[in-house]
Amino acid sequence: MKLTIDIDDKYSEPSITIQSNEWSEELEEIAAMIKGKKKKRLFGVEKEQTVLLEPHEIDYIYAEQRKVYACIGNRDIEIRRKLYEVEEMLASYGFMRFSKSVIGNLNHIARFELSFNGNLCAYFHSGNKEYITRKFVVPIKDQLQMGGDSDDR
């Protein structure tokens, strides 16, 4: 990678331009570092204990009976936040809406299967599966084609 820094009085504020032929994980890390993005983690409740959840460990998050849960492998951990709050918080970690009640981690998807009703079934590396409703299939497909990670296990 080539780095060029030009310091001159003609500039009123710092400006950064990155030129590349394609988006990469390295560019994503640089952009996050420049923006000063802090690592976000969630608090969950499991067996009356508060646990710290790392976004990269979560397969999907779902709402059921007015509660929100994070699915990590075979564990379902309650998160005491609204689903839309969690969605906004985790969007930069590769999470997208699967349905009205589910957001999923695109980086954990191993494969897809098409249902007869037009929905997709997403199978995660952990063995979990979750359905993507037709409304959200195209945005997820577009995001994956733009460069979603597939081997971040």
TrEMBL record:
Residues 43-146 form the HTH LytTR-type domain. The keyword Transcription applies. InterPro entries: LytR-like, LytTR_DNA-bd_dom. The keyword Nucleotide-binding does not apply. It comes from the Bacteria. One of its GO terms (molecular function) is phosphorelay response regulator activity. Keywords: Cytoplasm, DNA-binding, Transcription, Transcription regulation. PANTHER family: HTH LYTTR-TYPE DOMAIN-CONTAINING PROTEIN, TRANSCRIPTIONAL REGULATOR-RELATED. This is HTH LytTR-type domain-containing protein.
